[in-house]
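Possible regression after last week's pipeline update?

I re-ran a chain I had predicted before the update to compare outputs. Posting the input and the new output here so someone can diff against the archived version. Not blocking, just want to make sure nothing changed silently.
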Amino acid sequence: MMQFHINHKYIKRDIAPDEIFLDSKNLPEFNTQQFEGRLEKPIPKKSIFLLGLFFLLCGIIFTYKLSILQIVKGEAYFKKSENNTLMKQPIFADRGLIYDRNDVLLAWNSWDKNDLNKFSSPIRSYINEGGFGLLLGYVSSPAKDSSGNYWQESFIGKDGVEKSYNKNLTGKNGVRITETNVKGEIQSENIVNPPVAGENIKLSIDSRIQKKMYGSIVSMAQSASFGGGAGVLMDIKTGEILAMTSYPEYNGTILSLGKDRKTISGYFSDKRKVFLNRPVSGLYAPGSIVKPFLGYGALAENVISPLKQIFSNGSISIPNPYFPEKKSVFKDHGSFGYVDMRKAIAISSDVYFYEVGGGFENQKGLGILNIDKYAKLFGISAKTGIDVGLEKEGIVPTPDWKAKTFKGEMWRVGDTYNTAIGQYGFQVTPLSMARAVSGVASMGSIPTPHIKFADKAFESKTQTIPIDKDMMKVIHEGMRMAVTEGTATALNLANMKVAAKSGTAQVGLGNTNTNSWIVGFFPYENPKYSFAILMERGPKAASGNATRVMSEVVDYMSVYTPEYFK
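New output (post-update):
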């Protein structure tokens, strides 16, 4: 057995400090497994000195910088850190654009040309043409507080299309985080979320027809002293609105900016009700434009035949319920002799419709309940369901309505007479009459009006009412006669056959003013469009002015938009 002898003096020997830093290695020929020899080489003292010097220098620099930050400039940096503020700020999204059916831009966003990143609030702008104010509406713009912080970060639609389609048009703002100093100067910023633009909306409106209709209404109002006006043109098959305008109107850009306080104040103080969207929210006595509907009801209920004639000598008289010795006289606007249904519609004989509506001597009357029935059948007094505006519901006077309105007063035949010619408490909107006429033109199809282009959801809501086509043909012929030889001859155009019914409703205290109406459809042989024009609160003599307005519109369309008649 091999024995090893270890010298104890090596066991007790302390390791010298310089031996700690010795380099050591085994040569290849030594057997390290047997703990054979090892060569050792000490690290030079120069290297140790330089390393120590390096660490000492780093410590000095660190201590110097720390003293500068904490002692010399400590208070300044402390105040600076307190004054710097991290803020979440919006990156404004584009609000959706609004186009007409031919892709004409009607509403858009204007940005500061220097604000490429959209950090400042945009401006909502609208087409600089008359006739679009109440249709498009306006918005409440993003707003800041006194500190410059946005308390409202997006547009909010306040009227018209802007309000009805606000959810569609509104985009999603982006977010940026900024660090600002006490002066409000941005020290640093970081975009967290990019903005997402709102949806673009395409309307069924044809801006060319819209401008023409509005221009004709304004011209007539100013030349004949009307207080206002409204117009609607609708596709009777789809319910799409090609034109819908109201006069007077506001400027949507001015209201959206909110800076021109004088003009805005003038809007509110204008007695003509600038904010009233007349086609949708204006309620008016219809006058004689209800006669085609009552005429159809009288035929359908066998109250009268199409060819039976009634003699009109200018009025009828019945006993006065309050003074039996006196008679209540119900006047016509002329003496027309014997008239049948077609001629009565064409010349708008009040006597004929007094008798057909309420009965007289040997002539049976339709009666107020049936008048109400047929008015409702065509949706005359109901809301149409259009996708814009604060729509109002009309009124067809009935015994129940009178009892509620006049503290229990009973219904009398004279009330039926006045209702039969669209007076008394009768109230309708121009839009509801345009839709009702579409039911006449189409032989019973009642569409839901809408201003969004090619909206199948609205088109699927079209209702069909039961119509006797032979009887309705009589009404068509009477409305065509009104144009060729009756009260609507201004629409007797060489390049377009129109069927129409005019109306005049007396309004104001003592019936001192007149509302002038025209409703109808065209082309006569193959109806495609229905219309309603109202000229509001004019002089008594201004009875046919609405007809002349529509004549200008149809004539314009036949020349400049012939594609609608193909």
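Follow-up from reviewer: compared with the archived run. Confidence is low (pLDDT under 50) at residues 1-11. Marking as no regression found.
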